[in-house]
Amino acid sequence: MELTVYRQAAKTRPDGTVVYKGEDALPYADGQLVMAADGLGGAAAIRHSSIKPELFDEDKLLDTLFVGVYDDYSDPVLQDYVKKSFFELRAVKDCYTDNVNNIKKSGYFASRIVSAIVLREFLYNEKLAAKNLFAALDRLLDEKTRGEAVAKVGAHFTEKIATKLREIAKNANIFYESSYAGLSLLGTTLTAMLYRELGSETEVILLTAGDSRPYVWTEKDGLCQLTRDEERPDGGMTNYIKVSDDEDFTINSRYVKLPRPCVIFASTDGCFDSSAFLSPLAFEKTILEAARDSASPDEMSAKLRDFFAENGRHDDSSTIAMKLSGFSGFDEFKRSAERRLAEIEKLYISQLPQLLDEDFIGEYERSMADAPDEMSLLVSSLRTNENVRAYCEEAVKDEAEELTEDDDGVRNAAELRASARGEVRKLAADIAADESDSGDLSGMLDAVKSFHAARDTYESMRSEKFAANLRAAADKYWTDNAPALINDIRNGKGSCPAVLAAEIKSAADALSEKLANLGSSAEKQKALFDSYNTNYLKYIGGEQA
């Protein structure tokens, strides 16, 4: 039984055209091979506007790609796969260059062409067919010789992909169309798993480049990653397929034996790197729940696709190619999945119910990073408390008043107000002494208006300055005095109002309890994840770093 999961982000144009955004190739699974490839949308974000127009024509697609590269590419499996692989390109045939977002990136073409190259090798090269390749390995008597033979398979695909990818790119008119400094031409990851089912074991030859992953799942051990991601701590990859000048890549190869029944699958990071997963345990649980709730491989595929449509938005694509090996039918796999889910509940979830829902480790680390100690956290959290602010403002009110009166702007406004008031008084005295004619009444009105304006300006400016000075002085007072005040309150000392003391003590006790609980939960979460990882990483050892 095989199944695939293929989810792509898409946007519908006003004219109804659907523009697909992902660079993942169509996943592939058959009786000997499962394969996934993730075209690089960042490192290989070169847009190709001058591709051969025949690529938009399903009937001319294979000839355009493969003529002169291969003598024969008529196998119906290969033809069907390649045609389906480029359906997103045909969707924008009539508007390809209308908008830059419709133009496919280099990673899009790379993942599809590389997958086609790998598939053709396994279909046409009899020595590489699973039954023949594994039989040849059986004839090798010692582990060293067998390892050398497996390494030759990787070297073969390194050479084939490097050569054929360049030739096909030339056929398709894929090249650097303008300056894309630092970007790779035709960059993609690859995870291919050639397998043979034999007795109580499933044998697999892994072919990998980049950070897409091969996995195995068994009821006993759960989910296990089979190779180490080829990436730096900053997330950049140390090895991936590309045809840029002066840049090489390696197709890594490795042989593993896996106990049956098992599930082997290839996955791109649009699945396992979902923000919904705090641990690979969550990825495993999601897959098993999809199996438990489905009646067939197709329904399981649809449930996973729907899940990643909602929870895989960090990436434009989510891709899985899966083989259920050694199960008598889907129902047997379902029962196995249900038993493993019960074990996950018993060993992990019951120990910490929010284990996969809340990032205790990250939350605790962030809390500790925000402030150097508990006191700093408490001082910061209480800074905006209304009662604390009122207490601090009362303590610095006189200081804020003095600062306000000394402010040059406020002082000038006060002088203008006094001057305007003096002018009004002078005119009033003149009128009262009958020393002026009625024309001075008009001047009096203007003087009163000027006085009101000067007074309003002064009062507004003074109010704003006082409020700003009060806030600044209160903040400084709290920063300078909070630790001593809090310690006094904790020790039953101090002279602040009883209500405020009770509130601060309550906040301090609550924070201490929260940090203690958070630290305990973080420690427990880490221990549970570490325990899970013991099996999850059991196959990662001597292969490439």
3D architecture notes:
With 545 residues, the protein is an alpha+beta fold. It has 2 domains: 24-341, Phosphatase 2c, domain 1 (4-Layer Sandwich); 364-513, no CATH class. The protein contains 17 helices and 12 strands. The strands form 3 sheets. A 5-stranded antiparallel beta sheet has the order 1-12-11-8-9. A 5-stranded antiparallel beta sheet has the order 4-5-6-7-10. A hairpin with a 3-residue loop joins β8 and β9 (222-225). α4 (106-124) packs across α6, α14 packs antiparallel against α16 (439-490) and α15 runs antiparallel to α16. The longest helix has 52 residues, at 439-490. The radius of gyration is 36 Å and the shape is elongated. It starts with a strand and ends in a 9-residue tail after the last helix.
Structural key phrases:
2 domains; alpha+beta; five-stranded antiparallel sheet; Phosphatase 2c, domain 1; single chain; 545 residues; 17 helices
What is this structure, in a nutshell?
By secondary structure, this protein is α+β, with helices and mostly antiparallel strands. Helix content is 52%, strand content 13%.
Unreliable segments of 5+ consecutive residues: none
Summed over residues and divided by their number, the pLDDT gives a mean of: 90
The count of strands amounts to 12
Structural class, from helix and strand content? alpha+beta
Helical amount: 40-55%
N-to-C terminal Cα separation, in Å? 32 Å
Strand content: 5-15%
CATH topology of the largest domain: Phosphatase 2c, domain 1
Overall number of structural domains? 2
Given the structure, what is the number of helices? 17
What composes the largest sheet?
A: 5 strands, antiparallel
Strand order of the largest sheet: 1-12-11-8-9
Secondary-structure element sequence?
A: EEEEEHHHHHHEEEEEEHHHEHHHHHHHH
CATH class of the largest domain: Alpha Beta
Q: Rg to the nearest angstrom?
A: 36 Å
Q: CATH superfamily assignment of the largest domain?
A: PPM-type phosphatase domain
CATH architecture of the largest domain: 4-Layer Sandwich
Shape, principal axes of CA atoms: elongated
